[in-house]
C-alpha cells in the first residue's frame, strides 16, 4: 500500500512537468475556450431576443449604470456616456425629421476622427438606419462609387472637405443624395448646415418604435475595403457580426476601469468596432485622437493614464523608429490589441517599451472567420485547435502564385498544404460562419467564394492571404496574393490604381503591384508602364495626376518603363517576377523613376536614392 501511495504521489508531482512538456498551452487554451463559449452563448441569447439586444442596448445600459462616466476623451474635451446619449438622440431626431430618413436607410459618413462620428453612429442606431463609413482620403470617382454602392440617401461631412464635396455635388444631387455639413454654417450652396438644428433638438430618449424593425440580420454598418480588385467595396456588417467583433476586448479581460487609446481611423473595423465598440461592450473609456502621432503617442498615454492600446503594424514600427528616451517604459499600458505587426518590430517593441501583452488578431473585414493570438506567441496571428476546426472549418491550400489560382488535383479539388508550408487561407461558409459579401456587388461577392475545395459543392471564403500553420497550431501571415497589397495600414486595389493612371495619354498599358521596402510594414506601390508609340514619359504630369486622384497610400512610388508587358499563358499580366526584381537600378536595365515630393515629379531612380531607401535614410 505504501508503494501505491508513493507511486500516486510521484505521478502528482510529475503531472505538472508532463503538462508543461506535452501541453504547454493547456491552461491558456482552456481559459480562452471557456471565455469564447460564454461570449457565444451570451451573443446568441442577445440576438434571439425580440427585438435583439444590440450594441446600442449595451450602450444605453451603461448610460443608466454610470451616466457621468467619461466615454470619450478628445484633447481637452470630455464626453460622458450621458453626453453621447443626449447628442445621439438629438441627431436621431434631426435625421428622422429634417432629413426624412426611415428605418433601413443608409447615411454615408465622410468624417475625420472626431467625437461627432460616434454620436452620429449611435443616433443612426436609434432610428434603425445603417451607417456607411467612408474613407475620408478617397476622392472623385471612388467617393461617388462608395456612396452609390450602399445606396446612401444622405452624406454627412464637415466643411474641411468643401473642395472634395463641391467636386462631386452635382452628381450626388442628380442621384438624389442629400449632403449635410456638421457645422453651424455652410460654405457651399446646396449643402445645409445641421449642427444648429441638432443643438436645438430634444435630447430626450428616442422611442424604441423608431427602430422596431431591427433584427440580428439588419445591416448596421458598411465598412469599405479595397479587397482584391476594383473600386472600394461596401462590406455588409449586420447587427450580429457587429456585436461579435466588439466582444474582442472581453476576450482579453479588458474591463470597465480600463482606458483605451485609439488613434486609428474610425472608418476601419479596428478603430470603430474593436477600439470604440470594445469600450462600449466593457463600459470603459476611449481616448480618441484625430490621427496617429508617433511624437505625442506615449505622452498621451501618460496624460490619460492609458492601459489599453489598439494598433495596426505600422503604428508599432513608427513608435520603434522614434528616438529612444529614458521614460520609454514610464506608462500604464498593459495590453495592445490589433493586427499586422512584424516579428522584428514585435520583439523591438517589447524590448523597448516593456512587457505589454500583444494580442495580435487575424481576419478580413468581410471574412467569416478570425483568429486571436491569445497565447502571445511572437509573430503568430492566431492559434487553432481541434475544437476551433470543428466549429469554424478552414483550410490552408496549395496556391500557384504565378498563375494566381489554387492548385487542384486530377479530381478538380484543392490540395491542403503540409504543416509548416504556406498556402491560401480559406474558411468554409456555413450558417455559423456566413459570408455576407458586398453591397450591390454580386459579381465581386461571387469572386470571393471558392467552390469545390475539399468536395464537390462546398463553398469557402477566399481570404486572398497566404498563411502557414506550425505543428503547435499557431498561424502565421506570410503574404497577400492577387491584385492587392497593403501600405500604411490600408489595402490598395491595384486595378483601381491602374484605371486611374491609364487615363494619361502617354500610357499604353500598365501593371501596378506592391514591393517590399526594408523597415516598413506591407508593400509600397510600383507600376510597370508600356508607353504609347511615339510618346515619352512625363514625370511632372504623372505626379500631378496621382496626387489629384489617389490617396497617398495608393500612389506608386516607383515607375518602371518597359517595351512590352509580359503575359502568362492564360493572358494575365505577369506580376510575380516584377515584384521579385523590385526597384534596384543596379540590376534592372529598364528606365526607373522615383516619386520625389520635393521636385513634385517622378525623377530618374539613381543608385544613391536606392541606397538611401535600403539604409532607411529616406522617408517614404
From TrEMBL:
UniProt-listed GO biological process terms: bile acid metabolic process; long-chain fatty acid import into cell
This protein's GO CC annotations: endoplasmic reticulum membrane; plasma membrane
Positions of transmembrane segments: none
Example GO molecular function: long-chain fatty acid transmembrane transporter activity
SUPFAM superfamilies associated with the record: Acetyl-CoA synthetase-like
Subcellular locations according to the entry: Cell membrane
Broad EC category: ligase
Protein's membrane topology: Multi-pass membrane protein
UniProt catalytic activity: a long-chain fatty acid + ATP + CoA = a long-chain fatty acyl-CoA + AMP + diphosphate; tetracosanoate + ATP + CoA = tetracosanoyl-CoA + AMP + diphosphate; a very long-chain fatty acid + ATP + CoA = a very long-chain fatty acyl-CoA + AMP + diphosphate
UniProt domain AMP-dependent synthetase/ligase: residue ranges: 61-381
Keyword annotations: Cell membrane, Fatty acid metabolism, Ligase, Lipid metabolism, Lipid transport, Membrane, Nucleotide-binding, Transmembrane, Transmembrane helix, Transport
Sequence ranges assigned to domain AMP-binding enzyme C-terminal in this UniProt record: 496-572
Enzyme Commission numbers on file: 6.2.1.3
Pfam families: AMP-binding, AMP-binding_C
Keyword field contains DNA-binding: no
Keyword Magnesium: no
Protein family: Belongs to the ATP-dependent AMP-binding enzyme family.
NCBIfam families: PRK08279.1
Protein's UniProt name: long-chain-fatty-acid--CoA ligase
Species the sequence originates in: Salvator merianae
